[in-house]
Specification:
heterodimer; A: mainly alpha; 4 helices; about 0% strand; flat; B: alpha/beta; six-stranded parallel sheet; 18 helices; elongated
């Protein structure tokens, strides 16, 4: 894709990124950070692409390192975010029970 | 070319990422949002193997090794995320963020070694990814070490540190420019080394309480480096996902800094500046009343109503179980006890709720700020455990204070105030707390857990 198209996508993505989180409540700052952290774990795709066309061993080994790191980022990120949000939910339920 | 269906799948993944961030912004949809993000990531990963013969130069090479590497990484990430304790969440996020930045940097190194692109734009993006990804990598590992207490969580100021940091930063930029003009491998390794050192130097002077904000900032950095790696690889999905995280992460970092009443520049460079005391008299010269654990125990034992104000010090000292034990003792004596939870106490939104929930503190004892504030005038003892700025009346009364306008817990209206503090060092906002010098205030110095254990012991022997 040509440079201008990529630049267009880049600029528009900035606005979308700012817009979607602009109304976040303070209590969700930490899980949101964690969820966003997991999303950039998609760098795993890049790691797979470069490793899949590696032509020598240096590239291959570096690529495999990148894949391991990126997979930790992606999988760990989503799981840890889910655990955080899990803590929010039962507590609300408890509160409702108490108020009943 | 990449098959159309692969690109459609990637578009779907990009949309799922946007919906994920949107969902994570609201309590009701947060968990579903996270799952949507995970679905997007899974789709994107799966279709990465179908970019076609032209891209990979035949079928995907090294397929078994790639799948094994994915499995290893996934298992490490899964186990780490499942095993981590709730109190250690921030450093876990830091670690995951760091390895993501590291992955982006490594990808760009490989592209540099294999493609030898002549395009200045591609080279610039490659170098940007290497620098920012490496800074994020070592910076995040250092924040992990600080929060995990593998090293001191206090700001580390090395002599002439500011000039060393500036020097390394300038050297990094010069090397980066040289690399664009003259792309050689040796310059790349030099740049990589400088960037890794720079990440450490940037995070070293950041203090314990500010570390979560830095994690958020490094998270945005990693997002940007992923976006740049997308440009290097001519991959739209990486650009979109990386930019989304970069942009939302930057905004989030600013919001977190604001919620804590501290501009971002102070977070990063505060340790370099001299703290300006809000009063003319420095804290060492002013009299404070210090108390022994026995004094505190007696004060508490003869109170009718006690309010506990937990803060970052409680989390750092891991004193949540000890405080619960203390409160149980007091309740058994027929004393009315509540916890006052400030929304940003502990500097991680929801930090205190999670911490005390872990220690099995009953939910009904936790009171939100607006609910508890009217009760302070009728309270005999307000026990402040490792909190400072969230109870500083300067936020309410002193218009020149940097934290002016931040809502606080009005402990100064209680009949007596007890602070458990490690030292007279001001909170991270760096301003004196007048309550500390109030005649009705007593201070018990020491680690929150040690102090509380001693108070519990004294209470039992009363």
């Amino acid at each position: 894709m040509d440079a201008i198209s990529l630049l267009t996508i880049f600029i528009l993505s900035i606005f979308v990124g700012i817009e979607v989180v602009s109304k976040v409540s303070a209590i969700l700052h930490t899980p949101l950070m964690s969820g966003a952290n997991a999303i950039h774990g998609v760098v795993l795709v890049g790691a797979i692409l470069v490793t899949g066309k590696a032509t020598d061993n240096v590239q291959l080994y570096l690529g495999l390192v990148a894949i391991v790191l990126a997979a930790i980022n992606m999988v760990g990120g989503f799981v840890v975010t889910d655990r955080m949000l899990e803590m929010f939910k039962p507590k609300k339920a408890e509160k409702e029970e108490v108020s009943k | 070319m990449t098959p159309t269906w692969v690109r459609v799948a990637e578009l779907l993944a990009a949309v799922l990422f946007i919906l994920a961030l949107k969902g994570l912004s609201s309590p009701k949809t947060a968990r579903r949002g996270n799952l949507l993000g995970a679905a997007g990531a899974a789709i994107a990963t799966a279709v990465a193997f179908f970019y076609g013969q032209k891209f990979y130069g035949g079928p995907v090479q090294h397929l078994p090794e790639i799948l094994i590497a994915i499995a290893i990484g996934s298992i490490i990430g899964w186990v780490a995320a499942r095993r981590v304790q709730m109190t250690q969440m921030p450093q876990m996020v830091a670690l995951f963020n760091g390895v993501g930045g590291g992955a982006a940097a490594v990808i760009s190194v490989i592209e540099f070694l294999s493609v030898h692109s002549e395009s200045a734009a591609i080279l610039t993006a490659t170098i940007f990814t290497v620098v920012v990804g490496s800074v994020s990598f070592t910076g995040s590992l250092l924040t992990f070490a600080k929060l995990q207490e593998l090293m001191t969580s206090r700001p580390v100021v090395i002599p002439l540190g500011r000039f060393i940091t500036i020097g390394v930063a300038v050297a990094t930029v010069v090397t980066a420019v040289a690399l664009i003009l003259n792309p050689t491998n040796s310059l790349l390794w030099l740049l990589l080394g400088l960037s890794l050192v720079l990440g450490i130097l940037l995070v070293l002077p950041v203090g314990g309480a500010d570390v979560p904000i830095v994690i958020s900032l490094l998270n945005a950095f990693t997002g940007l480096s992923v976006a740049a790696s997308g440009y290097v690889l001519n991959n739209v999905l990486l650009i979109v996902a990386g930019t989304l995280v970069g942009a939302s992460g930057t905004l989030l970092t600013r919001m977190m800094a604001q919620a804590m009443g501290r501009p971002l520049t102070n977070t990063l460079f505060g340790a370099f500046k001299k703290r300006v005391a809000s009063s003319a008299v420095s804290s060492e010269d002013r009299p404070v009343k210090s108390a022994s654990p026995q004094d505190v125990a007696i004060m508490l034992a003869y109170a009718r109503k006690v309010i506990i104000v937990p803060g970052y010090g409680l989390a750092v000292a891991q004193a949540q179980n000890t405080i619960r034990e203390l409160v149980e003792l007091l309740v058994a004596k027929g004393i009315e006890v509540d916890y006052a939870i400030h929304p940003v106490a502990g500097r991680m939104p929801g930090h205190m709720n999670v911490l005390l929930a872990e220690a099995n503190v009953p939910y009904e004892q936790l009171k939100e700020m607006d609910e508890i504030n009217p009760e302070f005038p009728g309270t005999d003892v307000a026990l402040v455990v490792g909190a400072n700025d969230v109870v500083n009346p300067a936020a309410r009364d002193d218009k020149s204070a940097p934290i002016y306008g931040m809502p606080i817990l009005n402990v100064d209206q209680a009949q007596q105030v007890v602070f458990l503090k490690r030292s007279m060092r001001p909170g991270f906002a760096g301003i004196e707390n007048e309550v500390l010098f109030d005649p009705k205030t007593s201070l018990l110095f020491g680690d929150a857990k040690d102090s509380l254990t001693k108070v519990v012991g004294a209470l039992k022997s009363l």
